Amino acid sequence: MNLFFCGGIAKSGTTLxxxxxNQHDDISCxxxxxxxxxxxxxxxxxxxxxxxxKQIGDRIGLKxxxxxxxKVYINALTKIINDIAEERRLDKKFVGISDNNFLLENLNIxxxxxxxxxxxxxxxxxxxxxxxxxxHNHRLHTKENEYxxxxxxxxxxxxxxxxxxIHKSNLWNSEVKKIFGKIKKKxxxxxxxxxxxxxxxxxxxxxxxxxFIGCKYDSSTIKNILENTSLENFRAKSSSPEFYDKGSxxxxxxxxxxxxxxxxxxxxxxxLDLLNIKIPDKFK
Length: 284
Prior knowledge:
By secondary structure, this protein is α/β, with parallel strands linked by helices. It has a single domain, classed as P-loop containing nucleotide triphosphate hydrolases (Rossmann fold), CATH 3.40.50.300. The chain contains 13 helices and five strands. The protein has helices at residues 14-23, 35-59, 70-88, 100-105, 107-113, 126-144, 148-151, 161-182, 195-200, 202-213, 219-228, 231-237, 258-274; strands spanning 2-8, 27-28, 94-98, 118-123, 190-194. A five-stranded parallel β-sheet has the order 2-3-1-4-5, with helices on both faces. The radius of gyration is 21 Å and the shape is globular.
């Protein structure tokens, strides 16, 4: 089985990436997972079981009860992820697990336990990404009538888009640097792409992704994928078309004042440079 992982920081084009991959006839990458949920449950079981065997040992007077190591549970989690991938494969040559948080937070687990797998991480400039998150959560609040979607947007107990974007830009810079700090230089099994290039040079980036995975394609394949992954197509086929908003690439120019934009760029410039995301001349 040719296994790969894909994802990124939420609202960075991760759904678009997943859907592009799933359009190829030889690839199964049909939905987005939440492997961090599984990891959390395994951690609970690990701690709970060790407490349980210690309790049993205390009852019969054993002084030293050796706890079960985390390696046992990591091995079990690895097997479950492989089984999930196998079930999803659907007789395709390649299978992708699309998952944001697990991929970003556990690159060490992937490197140590999925040695032959490959990973694709997509990034987006922090300003447009923060605005997309802001709009998305407001839509969820309207749809589900759950204030929690709004609560997470508050800064110091208030809703303020400018402060939210500045705050998120600072966090984004730290997260990107943290990701870069986890990886080995020139890791041949890891590919970074940006939402900006995926939107402006879609065909070239798609080819780069398929070459990285080792998946064959021709001009017809690329043409079909371009047609089937348009914004209009997503909206037409979805029961929640409002989810697919037009992805902005202009560093929040339509939403924010220049002072907020420049401050956000200042706070995130280090990671913008790491990713070679071009900053508009007017905000340099």
